[in-house]
Each structure stands twice: as C-alpha cells, then as structure tokens.
Amino acid sequence: MSIWGWGFIGLLCLVCLETLSNEALKPCKLRRHLETKHGEYVTKPLQFFENKLKEYQSKKKVMEALQGSAVSVFKVQHKVEATIRKLAQWKKRVDQGNYDSFENMSDFLTKEETRLPNTVTNAVKEHLEGLKTQLREYFPALDAQCS
Ligand SMILES: [Zn+2]
Questions:
Q1: CA of 69 to the centre of ligand 1 (A)
Q2: Which residues does UniProt assign to the signal peptide (predicted)?
Q3: How far is the centre of ligand 1, averaged over its atoms, from the C-alpha of 67 (Å)?
Q4: I need a labelling partner for 104 at 20 to 30 A (CA). Which of 10, 52, 66, 78 fits?
C-alpha cells in the first residue's frame, strides 16, 4: 500500500501545512513534495500521517476558536469606543446647554421654558465623565494594552 496521498488533506500538506497548487494533486507531485521537503517522513507508516491528521484537526479547532474570540473582542472594543465618544459628545452638548441627548429632560426644559441650575449641570457632566472613566478602566484601549 502506498503512503502517497496520505500526508495530505486535499492539497494541504500535513507535515508543513503548505497548500499546494492544483497541479500538485497528481500523486507524483505529492510524492515529490514529500521526498524533497520532508525526506525524513517518506518511510513513516500510515499511522504517522493519521496522527498528523488528528493533530491538524485539533489545531484547526483551536485556531478557529481563537479567531472567533478575537473577532468578538474587536467588536466589543469597537462598541466601547463608540460609547466613550458618545459620552464625550453628550458632555460637550450639556456644556453648551443642549439637552437633546436626554429626550425627557429636553422636553421638560422646553415646556417649562427653564434652564437647569449649574449644580445639576455639573452633576450631569461629572456623571458622564465618571461613566467614561469607568468604561476606560474596564476596557483599556487596545493600543495601550500592546505597549
Ligand atoms: Zn509539506
């Protein structure tokens, strides 16, 4: 029984994880790949390549899982950054006496034709700043984590 073709899933070499070109699908090309690149494996029994296959499959699962979590980390980070920007924007508006971000309060102030006392405005701004700081503490910027 020939081992050629056993070192591969499709066109992926299980030894070096190189994907060969379509043309290499011919048994002689696969054989050449093993002989020239992995001469030491040519005499390995079938079992060896079966183990390689299992190894590859479990590695692939780990890689896929990691990629999945990386995607969601970036997603979460993106939302956090957007929220922090929004909080900064709200604070700036409050500074300018603009309460459009807070619908109920804005309606109330318009209806009553009044303004918020400074103490309340300051409390709102402090609260927004606090939210921002807390978010940043829980989710440090990704750039900062790398340094
Ligand atoms: Zn290879």
A1: 29
A2: 1-24
A3: 24
A4: 78
